[in-house]
Amino acid sequence: MLLHVVARGRIGRSPEAELVDRYLKRISWPTRVTELPDVGGREPDRVPHSRRVLLDEKGEVLGSVAFADRLGRWRDDGVREARFLLGAADGFNDADRAEADLLVSFGRATWPHLLARAMLAEQLFRATSILANHPYHREG
Predict the structure, then answer these.
(1) Are 100 and 53 in contact (CB under 8 A)?
(2) Under a CB-based contact definition with an 8 Å cutoff, are residues 6 and 44 in contact?
(3) What are residue 50's DSSP bridge partners?
(4) d(Cα 132, Cα 38) in Å, to the nearest integer?
(5) pLDDT digits (tens, 9 = 90+) for 49-65
(6) What span, in angstroms and rounded, lies between the C-alpha atoms of 131 and 121?
(7) Alpha-carbon distance 85 to 130, whole Å?
(8) Which regions of the chain are under pLDDT 70?
(9) What is the dihedral of CA 132, 134, 137, 140, to 10 degrees?
(10) What angle do CA 138, 109, 85 make, to 5 degrees?
(11) DSSP 8-state secondary structure symbol assigned to residue 85
(12) N or C: which end of the chain has fewer CB within 10 A?
């Protein structure tokens, strides 16, 4: 299953970009990153049998194991792409939220966009590690 991060804003060459790259390179599953301008631009067309996940302050706070379980179920059900969207500074509107398969939040705190992207990359690596029974994740 492809893990596709679609993010508003350009990350450029920064410490956050290095973190994102570091974690995405560790993932054994196929990954893709699409950057869109802060305003305008168009999300790539959805592929059949995909899931759309919005990182949103109104989303569900999932622990790492629950997040991995969700990805594992999608993979086992034949989902071809899990697309993770990070919005612009003002986030997503109600119509975007209604179209999503899942809303995920990294807690009640507000996170800088670039840091949220790095946190997502780490959680994707952690989830795939959990599913592979790799010792990276330590529970409890």
Answers:
(1) yes
(2) yes
(3) 81
(4) 35
(5) 999 999 999 999 999 99
(6) 16
(7) 22
(8) 137-138, 140
(9) 100
(10) 80
(11) E
(12) C
Give the C-alpha separation, 129 to 123, whole Å: 10
For 70, the token pair is 């969700």
Q: What whole-number distance in Å separates Cα of residue 112 and Cα of residue 115?
A: 5
The H or E element containing residue 28 is: none
Sort strands 50-60 and 31-36 into parallel, antiparallel or unpaired. Answer: unpaired
pTM recorded for the entire structure:
0.93
| Residue 132 tokens, joined | 């592979």
Distance, CA of 98 to CA of 93 (rounded, Å): 9
For residue 49, report the phi and psi dihedrals to the nearest 5 degrees: 60, 50
What SS3 state is found at 124? Answer: helix
